[in-house]
Design brief:
Radius of gyration: 26 Å
Distance between the termini: 77 Å
Strand content: 5-15%
Largest sheet: 2 strands, antiparallel
Helix content: 40-55%
Number of strands: 12
């Protein structure tokens, strides 16, 4: 089959570094920690053996001077349940992926074959480079007890017991492993196709890190994992709209590459994400039906996104051919790779002759290696398509379904389906035929509240402080900043306005949000007056911070 090996490759790092496999955010964050320490490059660990639960237990028990009073049974159970991330937990093939990513150096204890981030760590790091302040804040948080110059560790007085244990493990086992940057995998900082998702991620990370002195470390780390998954999913949903349009037009809009300077321009962006969320979380309700329609619209975009990714990747192959074999295309100054936008320029008329010759050769390879073309491909060949489009259709016929399935599984994991912080729900037991719908899990709601209730004060200093927020203002913020709709329907993306029956569903959805806010402690009923429906911060941060509590 001619589409084996490099000819059938799908992934293009200029679109996404993610390898489109199901992600586990503990393992993604663990790999990101290595990139934070090595300034963007992955780590290369030299260690004598694979680490299992017993190795960690022995380190505790053989060092009573540090771990006083640790008995074997309790230590084993605590290590397996609280300290370690296990693959296939409670099964015969259970194995250690690594410690929970509570401290920067936990990546040194991961078993790399069991702790694969599938490129999501690289994608996050490159998005975080949009603001060096976000990278610096994450380094200072995760490596706060480490001297950068010497690597020595001084545990802080406020460290929780899990972090203290991990720090001592690093000190005790530090001489038994070597950690260095993997220079064989240098960074390839592709220009962003869309700047907006990276800027939003950096802003939210810095706001969440404002809380590090006000909440337990384990809670903040869990919040960061939810936030990272949330922004990864929003980025890829946006790409599902932007990339096919870019292939059609042959370019990426300049406003997308630079980022939108104001709210009005961001609202007009045709590629922004707009999702309707079911806040009650119960299947079968009218609001759930609207959320199902919203999810269906976005998941139906995936086949065209897969095709567009193939088109960009194969144009990139064409660019490499022109640069290396033909010599008619110069490589960009200062780098050895072509960006997706540079590859898309090869769709121009001036490259048609070379493009037709290159892809006709590949089309003929497929035809020659098939005794008889399948009926569907025979119909394609009768359409009179140019060789590039014909080759793309062949790729989609042979590999499109597989890559679509892989992307769906990856997107499901980014949306944290069936996990705390979920933006997506799907009934269990129904397989791929069961209906997905967008939801707002309580953990994700908490994360969004933490970053939303922290705002700049009125004193002009730029310092952030917590302050109460009206519920209607919070709903508007979710729409304007993230494209999350609760009390109204999106303008487009499968919706054309709310009908009479929809209005009742929207009111019920808004009431369900109030109940959710009340359950997690951010909302108390003062009266039925609309203006007194106020969300109160859980933590008071900043000199002008207010919790919103009224004097008794």
């Amino acid at each position: 089959m001619a589409l084996t090996g490099s000819l059938g490759t799908f992934h293009h790092p200029g679109v996404s570094r993610v390898d489109y496999k199901p992600l586990d955010m503990d393992r993604v964050l663990t790999a990101l920690l290595a990139r934070l320490w090595h300034r963007g490059m992955p780590s290369k660990i030299s260690r004598s053996r694979t680490l299992d639960v017993e190795v960690f237990v022995k380190l505790f028990l053989e060092n009573p001077g540090v771990f006083d009073g640790f008995d074997r049974e309790t230590t084993t159970r605590w290590t397996a349940t609280h300290l370690l991330d296990l693959v296939n937990r409670a099964k015969a093939d259970e194995a250690v992926a690594g410690p929970r990513p509570l401290h920067g150096f936990t990546y040194r204890f991961r078993n790399s074959r069991k702790s694969r981030p599938y490129g999501a760590d690289e994608q996050l790091y490159e998005m975080l480079t949009a603001d060096e302040g976000a990278l610096k804040g994450l380094r200072e948080f995760f490596f706060s007890d480490v001297d950068r110059a010497t690597g020595s560790i001084t545990p802080g007085a406020g460290a929780d017991v899990e972090t203290q244990a991990l720090l001592h493990l690093v000190e005790l086992a530090g001489g038994q492993m070597q950690d260095r940057a993997d220079t064989g995998k240098p960074r390839t900082p592709y220009p962003r196709l869309c700047a907006e998702p990276a800027l939003l991620l950096c802003q939210d990370v810095m706001r969440l890190l404002y809380h590090q002195d006000h909440m337990p470390r384990t809670v903040l780390v869990d919040y960061l994992k939810v936030l990272f998954a949330f922004h990864l999913s929003l980025y890829h949903l946006r790409m599902a709209k932007l990339l096919p349009a870019a292939v059609e037009s042959g370019t990426v809009p300049a406003s997308c590459r630079k980022g939108h300077p104001g709210k009005a321009e961001a609202d007009r962006c045709p590629y922004r994400v707009r999702l309707f969320l079911d806040t009650e979380g119960t299947p079968g309700t009218p609001a759930a039906a609207l959320a199902e329609r919203s999810a269906d619209i976005w998941y139906r975009r995936i086949p065209r996104f897969v095709q567009a990714t193939y088109q960009v990747k194969k144009l990139d192959d064409f660019a490499e051919h022109l640069a290396d074999k033909v010599g008619t295309l110069s490589r960009p100054s200062g780098r050895s790779y072509f960006t997706p936008e540079e590859a898309l320029r090869l769709l121009g008329k001036s490259y048609r002759k070379d493009r037709d010759a290159f892809f006709l050769m590949r089309v003929n390879q497929v035809r020659d290696e098939e005794d008889e073309l399948p009926a569907e491909l025979k119909r394609v060949t009768q359409l009179g398509l140019d060789p590039f489009d014909e080759y793309t259709e062949m790729l989609m016929y042979y590999k499109g379904r597989y890559n679509r399935g892989q992307f769906v599984k990856c997107l499901d994991s980014m949306l944290l389906k069936h996990r705390p912080g979920a933006l997506l729900a799907q009934p269990r037991g129904g397989g791929d035929a069961s209906v997905r719908r967008f939801v707002l899990d309580a953990r994700l709601l908490e994360v969004l509240l933490q970053v939303s209730l922290l705002r700049e004060g009125d004193d002009g200093s730029g310092n952030l402080a917590t302050s109460p927020m009206r519920v209607d203002a919070f709903l508007a913020l979710l729409r304007d900043r993230y494209g999350l709709y609760i009390d109204r329907l999106p303008d487009g993306d499968g919706f054309t306005g709310a009908h009479l029956d929809d209005q009742a569903a929207l009111r019920a959805n808004s009431a369900a949000l109030l109940n959710r806010l009340r359950e997690i402690g951010y909302y108390q009923d003062m009266s039925d007056a609309y203006l007194t429906q106020t969300i109160t911060p859980r933590y008071a941060i900043g000199t002008a911070a207010r919790t919103g509590e009224l004097p008794r």
